[in-house]
Amino acid sequence: MKTIVIALTIVLALALPCTTTGEQNVEKNTPVLLPVKNDPTISFRIWFKVGSQNDPPGKEGLAAITASMLTDASTQKNTYAQIIEKLYPLAASYNATTNVEMTVIYGRTHKDNLKEFYSLFGDAILLPAFQQEDLDRIKSQVMNYLENTLRYANDEELGKAVLYNDIYSGTPYGHITAGTIQAVKSITIEDVLDFYKQHYTRGNVVIGLGGGYHKKLLAALQKDLQKLPAGALRSAAKPQPKTINGFNVTIIEKDAPATAISMGFPINVLRGSKGWYALAIANSWLGEHRNSSSHLYQVIREARGLNYGDYSYIEHYPNGGRLQLPPQNVCRRQQIFEIWIRPVPNEARHFALRAALREFKHLVDKGMSKGDFELTKSFLKKYVLHYAPTTMERLGYALDDRYYGIKASHLETYRKMMSTLTLGDVNAAIKKHWHYENMQIAIITKDAMALKEALVKDIPSPITYSTPKPESVMNEDKEISVFPVKVKEEDIKIVPMAELFLR
Amino acid sequence: MKHFFFTLVIVTLGSVAMAQSIFPYKYHVETLPNGLKVITIPTESPGLVAYYSIVRTGSRDEVEPGKSGFAHFFEHMMFRGTTKYPGPVYDSLITSIGASANAYTTDDYTAYHLNFAKEDLERVIELESDRFQNLYYEKPEFQTEAGAVYGEYRKSITSPFAVLNEKMQDLAYDVHTYKHTTIGFEADIKAMPEQFEYSKSFFARFYRPENVLLLITGDIDPKATMKLVTNYYSSWRKGYVPPNITPEPPQKAERSAEIAYNGKTLPIIDIAYKGDPFDPTNKDLIAALLLGDLAFGENSDLYKKLVINEQKVQFINPSVPMNRDLPLFEIYSMVKKLDDINYVRDEVYRTLEEFKTKLVDEKKLNDLKRRNKYGFLMGLDTPDNVAGGLARFAAISGGIEVVNQLYKQMESVTPQDILNAAKKYFTPERRTVVVLKGTQS
To answer: Is A476 on the interface with B (CB under 8 A)?
Structure first.
């Protein structure tokens, strides 16, 4: 019976006319639409302007847990087990992605299954049950991630998490989205309910809808979301990361088979501006994500075989180890430049750090060459075609465009810019946004004290290989091994694993 | 775990591709005189093409002692270029056309894939045909690449699942090459720089047209594409030498082991049963593909019990893969408390006993069939997903016709077939159990 009742509600809902939200910021919150006539599926991305920057102090992780309590838990109409059972034959699902500034509830269904899917999807957002047993289960997953998986199973993600936490320490960006162990432990149903009431409001939501949908679906969705409580956008202050002076190093002591390194510094440039696209060309040449065209990859992996890959970023790129192309809906007002050195043998850690910094310094000092500039432009012009092959991904980019205030699409702008930017633009962007001297560095390794001493004394780090290398490489190695990376003793902290993500 | 999810995608794909009324794309198959099979599938994807070269060689073919991981290592070497287009030139040409290019190796095959703009089709065919026929590298480059492979091993082995799978395969198999993981044993990876001569013989024996399929999907014209392929690949000479893979004898008794993970993790239990090689006419096998999900998938009673109600485990997942030879049907679970490991194990056994004696609910079976149908339809959204989803079928059967047979067979599976599959495969004699525990608490 339940199913029939829901189906009827949907039919009625579909027949209702379009309504507007009536909020003051209606202009900004108008739906983001991407109709694709021949698409047999419908993609939803419901964006709430809330993220881990809104976590109350002492409740770090609340934004992510609240979102999970909508999509991975019971509603007032169905238990979580019933929801799984109903979604199961549809091969459809919905999930939440929470980042620092955005939470997006997204899902996709075949048109044939829209009615069944939509009722469950709508209930998840509008009628969460917020039950203790669901919270217990979700908290247990988050705790397992913080206490075990992130600390022990994936040193690369660990290095990045430490880097971001260090750079943004003391700001609303200063903790990873999953939160901290003590805070997650303390989160109660009341916390979740309060957070939901404050942030899941009419003034804080943007509809993203794409694929082969009928306009009546949009009307129904708009009407349904009117059931959210009124409320204005509750913004958080833009983070002001502390100034980095010199090389600041955090070493995480771990009995690791290899050393993972991440480093970077805040930059003040966002996608949509000419400077960003110019910098994107330089960054692609230096370290295109998981691509052999990356110069760092060529130097550290291809010529020397020290690791599996080496990349750089000018936008946040979570889960890089699992993704080939950039994710959507991870927008931030404040970005960092980041270099990612995948695990190198422990005996090569100091050398690899020097090699990466040396290449970066060369680029900052000398700029790009004409040949590299032309090749990279040609690459990016077509490579961005692969960024969003599906409706769901294109819809994600469309929401991102709204976030960044990009009127034309970012991906189209990207391609156009590849025809208009000059080498002078790129080298000017490098000079403006990148510097070599001030860098936050995170290193996951064993024998932390030995590394600390080596960095403080800036002792040479000659490298030996088990297999022969060309003379050009051996000669360059001599320069790399003494390349100055001097760190003051007080700028190096050694942190035991057990203290990470604790509070 | 990756393996598990991949399997699900394939099962999903398999379930519908064959029904002509459902599968929206016509495909064309042609085999060149040298044995190279080419499958072209035009799809609605304005301007984009996916190009898969599938070598029917994976870690399964690593028969010589000390050579585990070589198929994967060789995948890396395929990016080192030819005399005509040395590695850096190949890289810069791929870069200049903005292609998204990569490769992966599995137990049964190795796939090289590119996504690119349709105007670059001839350039890609030229480059791919060149490296598959004329790969050339010097010894130092070969030895340096071994370092990158070791780096890949190092970055992965911090995961408890990598440690667990390595142990499970080693324990469950005595003689068959599924005894080692695709990345290989660490000792063999360490010794890879010494295998330069062997690498040449590997290329000469396995990288031959009769052992390779091309899957080309997207915005293509099949005739024009075939003309180009014929032009560039016809000079490739035959010469495939099949490896002599020792079949695994039937397992006679249960095996078990406990393994330590150097770090902190919740305990993981992996319960595996020897299955059957992929054969769409083997009804027991096809029923087992469905049984995994029915008994241990997200919609199963046991999942609801252990994950949602009792909350004793972080997850429970089945893995019922399709392989050329005899695979392991596995059930993984991450248990929250050490004391509950035996309880979870016994719940898995109890569930299997139930499936052996009680017919599964017809509605649940139909729900799964429906899920597979829509999962398949929704997965056909890009040329890369179409080609990528067909890759394993092409590799293990030598074509994509089996997809049709598999679907028909799956549609016909009854509750009685599920019961029969439970009785056939999930017996103590076929079983290997590995429990992994962290060294730190």
So the answer is: no
Interface contact A137, partner B, CB < 8 A: yes
Count of domains observed in chain A: 2
Query: Which are the contacts of A140, defined by CB distance < 8 A and separation ≥ 6?
Result: B311, B314, B336
Q: Given an 8 Å threshold on Cβ–Cβ distance, is B147 in contact with A375?
A: no
Predicted confidence at residue B23, as pLDDT, reads 63
Q: How far is A359 from chain B (nearest CA, A)?
A: 18
Q: Each residue of A378-436: pLDDT tens digit?
A: 999 999 999 999 999 999 999 999 999 999 999 999 999 999 999 999 999 999 999 99
ipTM of predicted complex: 0.90
pLDDT-based confidence at residue B38 (cuts at 50, 70, 90) = very high
B79 touches chain A (CB under 8 A): yes
What CATH number has the domain spanning B18-233?
3.30.830.10
Surface of B (201-260) touching A: CB under 8 A: none
Q: Which residue of B has its CA nearest to A256?
A: B158
Residues 6+ apart with CB under 8 A from A7: A115, A116, A119
Name the residue range of residue A354's domain: 247-497
Interchain CB contact of B310 with A (< 8 Å): no
**Quick one: A255 and A136 in the same domain?**
no
* A347 in contact with B, Cβ within 8 Å: no
Q: What is the pLDDT of residue A79?
A: 98
User: Given this model, what pLDDT does residue B376 score?
Assistant: 80
Q: What is the DSSP string of B328-387?
A: EEEEEEEESSGGGHHHHHHHHHHHHHHHHHSPPPHHHHHHHHHHHHHHHHHH-SSHHHHH
The predicted structure's pLDDT at residue B22 = 55
**A419: Cβ–Cβ under 8 A, 6 or more apart, which residues?**
A377, A381
pLDDT at B180: 96
Contacts of B102 in chain A (CB under 8 A): 290, 324
Q: Is the pLDDT of residue A11 over 60?
A: no
Q: Which of B158, B366, B382 sits opposite A389 (nearest CB)?
A: B382
Mean pLDDT, residues A26-53: 90
Asked if the C-beta of B375 comes within 8 angstroms of chain A's C-beta atoms, the answer is yes
CA distances from B1 to A157, A290, B153, B169, B248 (A): 18, 21, 16, 14, 24
Residue with tokens 């595996």: B272
Contacts of A496 in chain B (CB under 8 A): none
b or e along A389-407 (b: 16 or more beta carbons within 10 Å of the residue's beta carbon)?
bbbbbbbbbbbbbbbbebe
Search chain B and give the residue with CA nearest A260: B155
pLDDT value, residue B15: 32
User: Which of B148, B155, B378 is facing A305, going by the closest CB pair?
Assistant: B148
Residues A140 and A287 in one domain: no
Q: Which pTM does this prediction carry?
A: 0.92
Q: Does B439 touch chain A if contact means CB atoms closer than 8 Å?
A: no
Mean pLDDT computed over every residue of chain B? 92
**Residue A243 forms contact with B (CB below 8 Å):** no
pLDDT 10s digits, B183-213: 999 999 999 999 999 999 999 999 999 999 9
The second-level CATH assignment, the architecture, of B255-440 is 2-Layer Sandwich (3.30)
